[in-house]
Amino acid sequence: MSRSTSDAGIDVAGLVEEFDLARVGHYALIVLFLGFFLVSLETGIMTALKTNEAVARSLPFAPPTGEGFTLGNLRFAFERLSGSFFNSLFMAIPATIGSVLLGSMAAYGLTLVDWRAQMGFLSLFLIGIFLPYQAVLVPLARFWNNIFPLASMLEPTFEALPFLQGFHANLVPLIITHIAYGIPICTILFRSYYRSLPGSLVEAAKTDGASITKIYRRVILPISKPMFGVVFIYQFTQIYNEFLFAFTLITGADTPQAVVTLILPAVGASTSGIDFGIRMSASFLAALLTLIIYVAFAEQFAEGLRTESG
């Protein structure tokens, strides 16, 4: 049997010996999960491109045909969300940069610099990670609305700035809140990376007479770029998609300063029911910015994960 197959050019015995059941199961599991997520994605895209009649009469994952195809859902959703896209970016970009940069500095001070009470401050950062959002919503609203109304104080200044309106000042407390709440998790992520760095880097810089701040700017910051990519993507996604703080500090979805996560639940909903085509179009448009961020920083993200995993 083996001789006949060898004559035909196929070594069946060798193939059987190399057959790895665990590897086959591994690939089967990957294909299963990949198919599960891709079918969901394909179903959403097809629904966004269908009319209401086509959504009701066709299978969810079937492509639209003939008069069932429309781009009207995407146009309507974009017009509804266009203003909130600017608000979300105006809020998410500075909040992400602030929390990531301050988290990196805090991790540097808690990892590569020796000083008293270091572990005590690190414990406070760990507690900050596990502090639930719901526990601070009421004090947060009272602080920004009654004790320190920063938005009202900044509104005249914002009215004088180009490309901004007075109502954009209402996003400033939200930015500061996200920075404060994001620093603990960013610190812990950076700390795990800094612990893997060789101590000789800092010791050599100290021997050359560099100060603590100079070591951070000249040594630590340049070699932290991959980790910055990972933390930036993570933090931007968290802040851009956050709902509870936005719902607490911004008065409602019908206000001009509303962010995407406040408006999205109401898009496509009416007294007659839910328009699934518009709802899916709005969901994809809302997710588009995070996809662009992932693509733009994909190289840094992959390099940072490799570095983090050792």
TrEMBL record:
Topology class, membrane: Multi-pass membrane protein
Q: Which residues cross the membrane?
A: 27-49, 89-110, 122-144, 171-194, 215-237, 243-264, 276-297
Where is this protein found? Answer: Cell membrane; Membrane
Q: Where is the signal peptide?
A: none
**Record keywords:** Membrane, Transmembrane, Transmembrane helix, Transport
> Matching CDD domains, A to Z?
TM_PBP2 (cd06261)
Give the SUPFAM superfamilies listed for this entry: MetI-like
Q: Keyword Transmembrane helix, does the record have it?
A: yes
Give every ABC transmembrane type-1 domain span.
Answer: 85-297
What GO CC annotations are associated with the protein?
plasma membrane
Q: Name one GO biological process term.
A: transmembrane transport
One matching Pfam family is BPD_transp_1
Alphabetized Gene3D superfamilies for the sequence: MetI-like (1.10.3720.10)
Question: In terms of domain of life, where is this protein from?
Answer: Archaea
What family does the database annotate? Belongs to the binding-protein-dependent transport system permease family.
PANTHER family assigned: ABC TRANSPORTER PERMEASE PROTEIN (PTHR43879), GLUCOSE IMPORT SYSTEM PERMEASE PROTEIN GLCU (PTHR43879:SF1)
Q: Under what name is this protein listed?
A: Carbohydrate ABC transporter permease
